[in-house]
Amino acid sequence: MSDVVRLVGPNNAVELFGVTLVGVNATNGRKFLFTLLFIVVVLIVARLLRRASLWLVRGRGSERVVFWTRQGINLGAAVMLFIGVVSIWFDDPTRLATALGLLTAGLAFALQRVVTAIAGYFVILRGHTFNVGDRIVMGGVRGDVIALGFTQTTIMEMGQPPPVQKDDPAMWVQSRQYTGRVVAVSNARIFDEPVYNYTREFPYLWEELGVPIPYTADRARAERILLSAAEKHGVPVTELSAETLAELQRRYFLKPADVRPRVYLRLTDNWLEMTVRFVVRDHGIREQKDAMSREVLAGLEAAGIPIASATFEVVGFPPVRLADGAPRPVRREAS
User: Model pTM?
Assistant: First the structure.
């Protein structure tokens, strides 16, 4: 056995069948074992800290507190791993600088998308693009953010409203409710496409509900029914405080917006389209519009106002001549 594997030279390099293996020596072997032990210890400590933080904040904070706590622990563990591994393997600053230069060049060439995704992770955190629990559209995926990693964002997908039902990917849920699919989107997508956030800074949306009625119907009564339903099921005006809107306008230079329900009219060839515009929260929109639709239908029926539909009026009819092609009998008179 001693003729097959031997330790030679001042560095105790490993010689296998008379061939000295480059870089394989007793010193590097100890460093390798110590690196494995260090990585295992850091991962175990990070896992314990995540479990402890989850237990400490459970019932005492929101999901965002849990999210940022985990992100801090993950970032701390990554920094500790990097510093520890570098300290174990590079005791010469000159060698360290050379190795880092080669490593950076190799990563930039071979792992471009991964590096971009990691850069996107820090942009998301630093730029306050979104948090866990926010409802967003990212990379063509609509849904709620349920996890954020160094390279990917995990989204619980939701359906699409009818106006965008034909967009990719194919969707079978015709409203903003969960589909059950969990989608992983690369963080690099924030550099290529816009990110739509339904929640951050202003967790409200303007929604609309349209109803077609005949021109002969009582328009004023129909408008009152729509406004009553919007005021009952929409967000109360008092909930949208003037201070919140003023702060939003100060930070983002928004123009003043009217948050009170309002009905708009549109003339068509067949009916009068009445659309009520109102404010809702970013979640539970389908339930609110369903309740509003039921109340509006009941109110219109009680008021005797029908829902209009496409109609056609025949204003002229050309003469019609019927011929079956059969020979007609000749009628003769007796002489």
Answer: 0.61
